[in-house]
Design goal:
This protein has a 7-stranded mixed beta sheet, sandwiched between helices. The protein has a two-stranded antiparallel ribbon with strand order 1-2. The chain starts with 11 loop residues before the first helix and ends in a 16-residue tail after the last strand. It has 16 helices and 11 strands.
Length: about 475
Amino acid sequence: MSAAESPERKPGVRGFFANALRPKKSRQTLRKKTPVDGALGVEEVPAVPKLAPLEAHREKVRAAGVHIDTQRGENLDYTTILHKLGLNEPFDQDDSHHDFEHDNRPPGEPAVASLSSELWGCIVQYLNPRDAASLALASRTLYMRLGWLPFQILDLEENYQYKIEFLLFLDRRFPHHLLCFPCAKYHRRTQEGNERLRPADVLNPLFNCPHARNPLRPQPRHRITHNYVMPFSFVQLAMRAHRLGPRYGLSADSLCRRWKRNNWSFTTRYLIHKGHLLMRVTAQTYADPGLAPAAQRLLLYSRDDYWPYFSACAHWRDGELMNVCKCALTHVPIPRDTAGLQGLEHRMKDILAASSTQGSSSSHMITGCGKCRPKRRCPDCPTEYLVEIKLTEDRSQIKNVRFRHAIVVTRWSDLGDGTAPMSPEWAACNGYGPGYDSFATMGNRAISGIFESAFTSDTIPGQRVISLNPKGVKKGEAGNDWY
């Protein structure tokens, strides 16, 4: 196209630059297209849906009929499950106020206040002392109607059991206190967070109790071994920390101990399983071969109270426990006399037998007999025993390290839920309370199996469990078989 045909093009240098800098058609400003019908160009807003997206999703799932499993009744709508986890359910177990935020019920104080004190007094007469005191403590209005009388009745000597049950309800409100059962009161913890198990001859009070030195009202405790007991206060601390939080007590691992006394070595370990405190006590000592009956008694019994040095329940005299230990001691191999030519021949046989097994000590391994090999379960309390003869390393002499046989007695027990000394397991292990049938209560699952399955590093031989007292004879100290 020539310059004459284009009216916008200018001649000369000035026209050249003007035409070069002229904006092209592609760089022109975009403009909105005018509506055909002549209406204003306003963007249309979509209509508001009748249901929220989550509710619409629920309606869709309900219509499909796949939100509930017909076999197990489970909710298969994962969107609803995640929504409830994120918005509705509290994640902190102590966040109890979350449930009351959505409580739309009208307050019940006017309805309670509408009844007279005489009518509330008639209602309380149908309740036991524990429930009557709990009702009076429920609200200020009920306390004004009932007064101090329910608490006075609860404080009577004959209502001691009801008072303990009432105080157990208040355990959550006193993290810095412990319930003293002889006093039926909460005492301030004097070693809060630093409580440690000590031997029985070491004074170790956890709180200041006026009946601490009263032999008529002793603190509940359980004998672990000779000169070592388990006060019930430590069971309280372990279970309170498990149920309510660490500031209420101690962890179960902090109760574990190792010590030596009277040529015996002891190791204790604890485990909380389904709200119960399980205890394992392992005791061992070196056993010489060919012990006479009197030497066996000196090895097994304490001369102070004629109890076994190892851990035992209150029913150890009724049954075969001590006979099993004495039977295991008879299996300690007696070394052969190596004097003379005959002894040299036996020594050569032992060397050849050891070389054929590549230096193993299989000739010194003891499996026991049908009497002392199985685990024994006490029929009157949740306690199991295992008696073994093991080849252990004796390091009593630094320069001369040798291997010796040792008797190892392992005890597993269930100490209960730690709420009160009247719990069935604690009362059965200490020999008081109502009758306890361990085989009917625990069934086929052994306490030792439950305990050892929680620790992969510990193993026990697979032995069957039989009764510690198969004949059911209960003579106690009057019998002669235990000694």
